[in-house]
Amino acid sequence: MRILVNLLLDTLPMLGNVLLLCFFVFFIFGIIGVQLWAGLLRNRCYPEENFTIPSGMTLPAPYYRPEEDDERPFICSLASDNGIMSCSDVPARREGGRICCLDKEDALHRQSLGLSPEPLSNGSGAGEALGLCINWNQYYTRCHTGSTNPHKGAINFDNIVYAWIVIFQVITLEGWVEIMYYVMDAHSFYNFIYFILLIIIGSFFMINLCLVVIATQFSETKQREHQLMQEQRAQCLSSSTLASMAEPGDCYEELFQLVCHVLRKAKRRSAALYYTLRGKPAPASVGRAPKCPHHGKQNHDSQAQANSISLTVQSPEECPICLKEGSRSAGQENGEENEEDAVKETDKEENHLEGKKNEERRRRRTCFGRCRDLWKDMRRKLWGIVESKYFSRGIMIAILINTISMGIEHHNQPEELTNVLEICNIVFTSMFTLEMILKLTAFGFFEYLRNPYNIFDGIIVIISVCEIIGQADGGLSVLRTFRLLRVIKLVRFMPALRRQLVVLMKTMDNVATFCMLLMLFIFIFSILGMHIFGCKFSLKTEAGDTVPDRKNFDSLLWAIVTVFQILTQEDWNMVLYNGMASTSPCAALYFVALMTFGNYVLFNLLVAILVEGFQAEGDANRSYSDDDRSSCNFDESDKQKDSLHLSALRFRSRVFVCTFVSSDLCLLQSLCFRIQKMLEAYRPDWCETREDWSIFLFSPQNKFRQMCQSIIAHKLFDYVVLAFIFSNCITVALERPKILQGSLERVFLTISNYIFTAIFVGEMTLKVVSMGLYMGEQAYLRSSWNVLDGFLVFVSLIDIVVSMAGGAKILGVLRVLRLLRTLRPLRVISRAPGLKLVVETLITSLKPIGNIVLICCAFFIIFGILGVQLFKGKFFYCLGPDVKNITNKSDCLDKKYKWVHHKYNFDNLGQALMSLFVLASKDGWVNIMYHGLDAVGVDQQPITNNNPWMLLYFISFLLIVSFFVLNMFVGVVVENFHKCRQHQEVEEAKRREEKRQRRMEKKRRKAQKLPYYASYGNMRLMIHTLCTNHYLDLIITFIICINVITMSLEHYNQPHSLDLALKYCNYFFTSTFVLESILKLIAFGFRRFFKDRWNQLDLAIVLLSVMGITLEEIEISAALPINPTIIRIMRVLRIARVLKLLKMATGMRALLDTVVQALPQVGNLGLLFMLLFFIYAALGVELFGELVCNEDYPCEGMSRHATFENFGMAFLTLFQVSTGDNWNGIMKDTLRECPPSHDSGVDYGCNPSLQFISPMYFVSFVLTAQFVLINVVVAVLMKHLDDSNKEAQEEAEMDAEIELELAQGTLCCMGAPSCGGLGVDKGLLTVGSGLGAAQWLDSVSLLIKDTIDGEMLMIDNLSGSVFHHYSSPPVCKDCKGHPQEVPR
Question: Mind telling me which residue stretches traverse the membrane in this protein (predicted)?
Fold first, then answer.
């Protein structure tokens, strides 16, 4: 706990900088949002102003509302804006599933005839059939600014505070798409740029910077605290047998040691008491067990304990040599006691053995002695059986078959299958019980317990046996779930996985502490939430009743669930809207605090723990022999150690090799080799003579081959091919299913496909002719990238042949080939070096990532099978208008309603895994949880919150898998990234050292140089002093802060007086910045002024401000016609003033430098992202381009904005999926089931094949985008933050070194007489009669202030040791009174 709390305190300074950066982003984006979209989300479609309604009729609503509650309104675009939606897009009114076809004139005519104007409202069947109702929606034609904002007024850009709430919601990636669509509807389609920029800067960079800062600090803090604890342990070292300077093992090992110690003590005392009571003197070593003479004390190594197949040779019964000598060995005091004794200490003394010799001979002749010999022989044989490879493989196969038998259980399974599965369970339980008995017999009780894996196995066996016994009595069905833990037993047979689990186990102490912190945090916020929002969240049902919302704070249980839900970021925005509507807008502070501290600090702490665990286990990929050597528990001082050690190692390595090395691979290689040898006998002679010929046709001297080689070697060749690939990408992007056959577009795309295929075939031919196809080192197929190219060319050729041979007949094949054609952009990778490096890094990460995926799979299968047992057949519900009185399936069908199941259910293992993946991605998990809580039974109608205990299932899955196991992805990717960069470390260190030397020399020269302002006149020197004064920067910073606040005061419908005040403020600020720029120009001169980037920024801000004021004045005086958009843009560009703050905020600048340094590598990642998006977008258009969303086919995720109709919209939709916002809704829409009478010619609303393709498409995309690529960004940022920290430290050390040299006089200023300088005219140093000494002090303080201005804050954080160098001004002994150069 102390480590974690100290860590949080240590990270506060750096997290403060991240927070400042967040404020910076919030201010910039908030002011832009208010300037552009204030009041726009109030736009609604109203009837025309002169619209009159006949008497007896009323409009359904004053403006058009798609729904009754106006939660998701229809926002239109004003005539002055270019939004997507206008009032002409308002859909026709529908009643009873029919479009209304009457207008108000028809209604008047019906009234004049004495008929009802709207028959449908009276429930007439004829009216419903004909759609006889008035289409009032056609009269909502005027777009006008109304009074309400979306989502109970919570979402708008009317002022800076509401804009911040929106920005925070966008950065959390929950519900951001909806806000973007509102703004696009009201203002312009291109507003998506604002939101995507905000997500990339805010979510992908800033939030990951939080994680990077915490993770970087964690290892330092842990190391420091660890050292402190070691010192304390050294001080408190006692004479106890348990206390030692050795590093403690894991928790289980320490407990085991303690129990052994207590038992040993108890045994000795009881033996002593026994002898005392009998009145006999106790032997010299009462209760001490003999020890194997072939090794020393056990070395308790946690790494060894993690190994399942451990050969811990410790007691005479367990040492193979001792067992062989068992028949000749001296007997012990008590065989049974010796077997169960835990820690064997010293041999019995020789005199004691000799004294008992005769008695033991007598015992040997008895039946008991012979039985003991038989028992030992049997145990020796059992040891061999249990440790053999066949035994291990048999158990592994049994576990696999058992897992499969548990996995095939499903809803509506036949009775025979149920009986077979029960028999299987009894068989497997018997097998595992037998395994446990055999191991207990072979190892002995305590030796069995020494391995934690055995305890795990034993508990599962005991529970399984209890379950079978209990089942016979009809109870204990809950124990069925514990069978599932057998899946985890598989891990012990896979060394790579076991190593990942060791990392998990080693972080468990920190994770347990983290869980306590998390529980405390959730409890505090739950109690606070109950006080603020208790009994305030209500919801109106369709029947008009008011019921509490399911996300509420009415009781402690639901408050905890709601807080946990907010921490998972799922639908937290809905809770925010309810909270703001039911209390006040200030309620947003509660949610922002909860999200910030919970999500961005606490959960990042968990990731930091795992990342540190993986980095500490960085040598985990060392050879297994090292592991084995450490786990053979022999004492180095023992004489006979070497031979036994080697034999044990051979034995263990044999077990390892036989068990884990893929013998199939070796077999395959030897088989291939044999076939190759056999075929060599039949090989023609010309094959040998033409080995270096290309495809046995073109010799190395062949003119055509040489020409091909010269073409490929030309520097333009790759660029030309790249140009063709990019052109082909454009044509692939233009493809979509709705292009009519025979149209000009279809003809163009077909011909272009033929042309590109011909070009790529030509390129492949050139390469094959010049390099050879397969024979030779440089052959075409020897490179995996060429194999990819060749495969894509081959696919394109087959595609052309199939389409020419009559594609209509084999449409399925053609569709598959079309889909494969979308992979062509992958060819870009091999031709872009940076991109290739990133891809190769990711490919090398695949093995460790694969291990994590396997661990995930184990947990998924366990929770999946458990979910099937808990919920199979229970996720059905009745779909109809009134289901209040329906209790089961038969009631539902009697009323002619539909009995349907939820898309995500647990009816079989496949469906369960799909539902669990949605849960793990934390998008849409709340609804699945509600369905689970409401489930009653098979064919029973759900009841709200029927079984709240099911919360345990869902929340434990989220904690274990989503937060813990999936975050291991970050650890693996970061560790692997560092490993991949290790070979570059030497070069980088060399380069850094050279750079440091150059900078050191530069600083030395600068310190010796004559200052540039030495020749200035008095007035200019005064201006220079003013401009370089630290206080001027502080004043300017203060003015900018005031300016930012005044810009933030702008809001919707602001009074005219505020307009005037802000206008005059702008004049004042602009004039201040103009004056500052003029003074600096005078002080530094043009060349030196423009050399500094900050001065360039200042001048740009001044010019923009002056231009903005000029345009505003021209518009007011109406001298020239000026577009209002230009004025608005100029007002938005004033935001650039905020950037001046960066000059002072050095900590923020350090973080920004980290981000900027990381940009080249992140750019390569961005390219890879683009490539991934491109391929999936093209695939999405092919697969889902014809899916429609309308009243007949309602959609949950797809909408008029989120579609796959064309490439651009597909790209934007995939960006939404990659952020995890409602991706499960989009996938649900693609999984649409076809009705039995579906005719594809009528309306393409579904596709049966998508049931299988769609989950693969979305799951692979989400896994790649969310879990792998984003984590590489974290790895890159961590690396560069580390580098920038090192650089800052080096900079500080260099400055300190120069200060020290100046102070000691080894480095002299130019111009000092003793240094051989020319001397400086004293008149230059005295500006006035009283300014001499003051001027000197000013210049020295100026030097100190300005040299450390850029790094001071960061240096204080990183390198406090050099602070004393800054605290006193440097004095050159022989140069008193000399002003030094101020570096700019």
Answer: 12-34, 161-183, 189-214, 390-408, 420-446, 511-533, 588-611, 747-770, 790-817, 852-871, 951-974, 1030-1047, 1067-1086, 1150-1177, 1257-1278
